[in-house]
Design goal:
The protein contains twelve helices and 15 strands. With about 325 residues, the chain is α/β, with parallel strands linked by helices. The protein has a seven-stranded parallel beta sheet, sandwiched between helices. The protein has a two-stranded parallel ribbon with strand order 6-15. It has a two-stranded parallel ribbon with strand order 8-11.
């Protein structure tokens, strides 16, 4: 595909920054929404054009003028009690962005979704895109992102292709999300393995996510969702140990029983709901569903329809982090 003018939301975030780097390196003109002067500086420093505004700006379509492609990466990723505000950002914001994009003449849009749209606290084993949405999502993040994904795919129309990409456990260079939380938990003494951490997880290196988004923009079928991962799942304990080693940190062997943690998570969910988030136990059901059970994904659909293959191996990604830090 020849270079298209691309509009990105969430450009100053972890995924957004790396998307800008990826497409600027391919000589695509990139415009990114910036909510603050600090965000605009980050976007400009990466070689994109910052435009002032936010997801609900009334003139958003005007700010997208001339863009033919959209990547919607902005989201509220809170894994605690998200409530109405998380729904407003994730569902309402997605609606506003896509409405503006269609009005601006954008022809293809990729929405950054997540495997969390399928989580309910039970293991998810080798799931593909036919797996149904859960009747009771794990928490506000799963619920709001599931609502956003369903809404986005329903807005697919002739001349306006909307595609959803579902990564799992995004990691790698420049990580300001998962790894800092792990480091903070370790340094505070709150880190513990759940049932020894000996269960599988799929992962998505940031370079592989960017490659998947690129392919989805050019080859994705409108109205469809695609899992994008690093390929074969790995043991959760091995992944986390290796990530923390890149920061010169070793992990203690402390373990907590999964059954006890699930009871705490369910109790915490109820207390958080009743108190509108004022009361919180050490773990939420959303956090439990994300990190305490197997979550492994089948990427056959992305391989067959997008021609997707990982561009970064686990070993190369870890070596990159050891060399450059976070």
């Amino acid at each position: 595909m020849s270079a298209q003018k691309l509009f990105i939301t969430g450009g100053s975030g972890y995924v957004g920054r790396n998307l800008i780097r990826h497409f600027v390196a391919r000589n695509w003109p990139v415009v990114a929404l910036a909510r603050s002067a600090a965000a605009a500086d980050i976007v400009a420093g990466l070689g994109a054009e910052p435009v002032d505004g936010e997801l609900f700006s009334s003139d958003l379509a005007e700010r997208m003028a001339g863009c033919t492609m959209l990547v919607h990466a902005a989201a509220d990723t809170n894994h605690g009690y998200g409530g109405a505000e998380q729904v407003r950002i994730n569902v309402g914001g997605t609606c506003k962005v896509l409405e503006a994009a269609e009005a601006a003449g954008v022809t293809r849009a990729v929405c950054l979704s997540t495997e969390s749209v399928l989580l309910d606290g039970r293991p998810l084993v080798n799931a593909n895109e036919t797996h149904p949405y859960p009747k009771r999502p794990a928490g506000s993040y799963s619920r709001s992102k599931g609502g956003a994904e369903r809404l986005a795919l329903s807005m697919n129309a002739p001349g306006f292709a909307v595609i959803a990409i579902r990564p799992r456990f995004v990691w790698g260079r420049d990580d300001t999300t998962a790894l800092p939380h792990l480091v903070a938990a370790l340094r505070s003494g709150q880190f513990a393995w759940i049932e020894g951490g000996r269960y599988l997880t799929s992962t998505t290196h940031i370079a592989n996510l960017c490659a998947g988004v690129d392919l989805a923009l050019s080859r994705g079928r409108g109205g469809q969702a695609y899992f994008i991962t690093d390929g074969a799942p790995v043991m959760f304990r091995t992944l986390v140990t290796d990530l923390l080693k890149t920061q010169g940190l070793s992990v203690p062997d402390k373990t907590v029983p999964r059954a006890l943690l699930r009871v705490m998570a369910l109790a915490g969910e109820g207390l958080a709901t009743m108190s509108s988030g004022r009361v919180r136990l050490p773990i939420t059901l959303q956090e439990f569903a994300t990190s305490a059970v197997e979550v492994s994904l089948d990427i056959t659909k992305a391989q067959n329809e997008l021609g997707y293959a990982p561009v970064m191996t686990m070993s190369a990604g870890l070596a990159e982090m050891r060399a450059g830090g976070v």
